[in-house]
Amino acid sequence: MKFFILSIATLFIFSNTVFSQNDKQKAIMKYMEANQHYLKKEFVEAGDKYKAAFKLNKANKVAAFNSACSYALAKNADKAVEMAQIAYEAGMYSFDDPDFDSIRGDERFAAIEAIATADIESTKSRTMDPVVVLPSEDVEPGLGMIIAMHGYGGDPENFKQAYQAVAKKYNMILVCLRATEVTGKDAFHWNFSQSEIYRINTQIKKVIKDYKIEGDKVILTGFSQGGYLTYLVGVGNSQLFAGLIPVAGQFNASKVQFDEVLNKDLKLYSMVGKEDKPDYLKGANEAKELFEKNKMRAKVVEYNAGHTYPANSNQLISEGIDWILK
Predict the structure, then answer these.
(1) Tens digits of residue pLDDT in 83-98
(2) Domains, the chain, ordered by start
(3) 3-state secondary structure at position 213
(4) CA 63, CA 271: separation in Å to the nearest integer?
(5) Widest CA span in the chain
(6) Residues of the chain with pLDDT under 50
(7) Which of 49, 111, 120, 250 has the fewest CB within 10 Å, making it most exposed?
C-alpha cells in the first residue's frame, strides 16, 4: 500500500466534493479504522473499511486503492480486482505496489495495470511548470512570494487551496511546484533525486527572477514529502528565502548541510501534528536545535491533528509569516 496511512486527511480539507459534516466525519473514521486493521494485518476487515470510506467520499480515491491492496493481501482476487478497477476509474495509476503480488498473474488485474501504466507514461509528458497564483492582474515588483510543495499523491492545482487565502491576505504571489513521479490522475510524488532537486532549485530561481522578488520576502513551505524538501532545499539555498515553514515534514540531519548556509537570517517555523508519528516532532525539534546552534532563529508549533493540516492552518501559517517577516 502506498504511504497514505496518515496523510489522507488532507483530502478531506481540500476536496472540492460537497458532502455533509456528518458524512465527512464518518468517512474519516472509516478510513482510520481501516488503517488500524491494515497495520494489524487484518486485511479482509481493512478492505471492507477502506471500501466503506470510499463510498462515503468518492473524492478519496486512495481509499479505493488501499481497499484493493488489502483484498489482494487477503488473497481475495475477485474483490481485489473489483476495487482495483474502481481505483483506476477514480484516478489511481500506480499498481506496481507489492501488495498486489498475489494477483499479479490474474488476467483481469494485468489488464488494469497495463492501461494504468500507459496512462502514467501519458501523464509524464505533461508540463511540470509551477502553478502560479497572482494576487491581482497587475503585479508590481517587490511583492512577497510563497513557494509551496505538495505531499505524496498531491498536485499543485489542488494543493494551492492550502495557501491561497493566506497569500491573498498578505498580497503575496503563490507558486506551487509539481513532483516528478506519477501516482495517478492529478496525483504525483517526489523522488528526491539530484535531477529533481536541480529542477526544483531552477524553477524557484526562475520565478523569483521573473517576478523581481527579493530573498527577504520569499517563504518556502511544503506538506509531508514537501515538508521534507522544505528543510532540504531551504537550508541548501538559504540565500533565496526569508524563512521556511515545513508542515508535517520529516527532518534528516544527515541530508542538510548547515555548514554551507549563506543566509544566517533564515528562520524556521516548523508545524507538526501532536498525533503524527513521534519521529516528525523529534525531527522538528532536532532541526530547531541545529538552527539555533548555527545562530539562526527557529520555532516548533504543535497542533491538534495527525499527519495533515490543522483546522486552523490559515491562522498558524499567518502567524508563521508574521514571525518570519517581522
Answers:
(1) 999 999 999 998 999 9
(2) 9-124 (1.25.40.10), 131-325 (3.40.50.1820)
(3) coil
(4) 26
(5) 61
(6) 3-18
(7) 111
